[in-house]
Amino acid sequence: QTCALPIFRNEGIRVDGTYRPNGNLPLPGLFDDLIPLDLTKRGNYSLLKAPYDAVVHVASLAEGRTTDILECTALSTALLLEKVQESGIPVFVHVSSMAVYGAITTDLVDTDTPIRHTTTFGASKWAAECFIGAHSPQIHGVSVRTPAIVGKRSHRHFLARTLQAMNQQASEIELLNPDFGSNNLIHEDTLAEFLVHLAMHPPATFCAVPVSSTAPMTLRDIVKRLTHVSGYTGRVIWSRSQIPPFAINPDRALQLGFKPLTMAETVDRWIFDICNS
C-alpha cells in the first residue's frame, strides 16, 4: 500500500519496502530503503536487518497455480512471522481479503460470520490469519479483510472491469442486482490511513476485521455515475443473481479506529482519481 507512505512520512517515520527480485520495482524515491526479498525463501530474510517497529504485510498472489498461491500467500506469511518474532518486532499488520469467508449465506457480514472456504486464495489468506493469531500476544497482530479496493490502480474486481468495458464502449454489459444497497467498496487512501493507524495503535490481541464504506448505495446508482464519467453509450443489462448479495458490517474495525467514507464519497473519490490519472 504505497498510499500509506505519505502518512508515515508526515509522522516522521522511516519506511523501508521489499520487492521480489524478479518482479516489478516500485517507483524510485517511494521508500527510504528498498530491499530485494523473495518472501517464499527463508534464507532471504537475513536481508531484513533494521530494528523495525512494525511490519505492514500486503504481498500475496491471488491468481495462478494452487501451489503458487499457497506458497506466496500463506507460507510466506509464516516465514515472515518467524523473522518478525526472531527480530523482536512487536506489530504485524496484515492486509487480508473478504475472500476468506468463501460461500456467504447471510445478508450482512461481520467479524464473526462463519467461514466456508471456496477458493485457494481465500483459504490461503485465512491460513495467513491463523499464523498471525498463533503468535499473539507476543506479536500484536491484526488482519484487515478488504472488499473491492478502488483508486488509481483499480483492477480485477467487477466494478473496475465494468468501468473498463465502458471505456472500451462495449455494446452490452451484463450486471447483477441493480437495487441492492452495496457498501462492498473501499478507497485505497481510506485503507492506507487505517493501516498506518493500526501500525501505531495495534490491538492488544489478534483480530481479523472486515472494512467497508458506510451508507450503502444501490448498484444501479453506482453504475449511473460510472456511465456518466466514461461517456458510455452502450446497453446495461440487469438481472438477479442466484446467490444473494451481502453488505459488510465494519463495526469491529470502527472500534479499532477505522474512519470510513460513505459509498458516495468513495465512488466520487474514485471518479476523481480516474479523471486526474
The number of helical runs is 8
Structural class by SSE content: alpha/beta
Share of β-strand residues: 15-25%
Instruction: Write out the strand line-up for the largest beta sheet, numbering strands in chain order.
Output: 3-4-6-11
- Helical content stands at 25-40%
Number of strands: 14
- Cα(first) to Cα(last) distance is 18 Å
Which of globular, elongated, flat, extended, rod-shaped describes the shape? globular
Sheet with the most strands, sense and barrel status = 4 strands, parallel
Task: State Rg.
Answer: 19 Å
Mean pLDDT: 94
Task: Catalogue the unreliable spans.
Answer: none
Give the SSE order as H and E letters: HEEEHEEHEEHEEEHEEHEEHH
Counting copies of identical and different chains, the oligomeric state is: single chain
Q: Can you tell me about this structure?
A:
This protein is an alpha/beta fold and 277 residues long. It has helices at 5-10, 66-87, 120-134, 158-167, 188-200, 219-230, 251-255, 263-275, and strands at residues 16-19, 33-36, 54-57, 91-97, 108-109, 140-146, 148-150, 172-176, 181-182, 185-187, 207-210, 217-218, 235-239, 247-248. The strands form six sheets. It has a four-stranded parallel sheet, sandwiched between helices. Helix 2 links the parallel strand 3 and strand 4 (91-97). The protein is globular, with a radius of gyration of 19 Å.
Short overview:
The protein contains eight helices and 14 strands. It is α/β, with parallel strands linked by helices and 277 residues long.
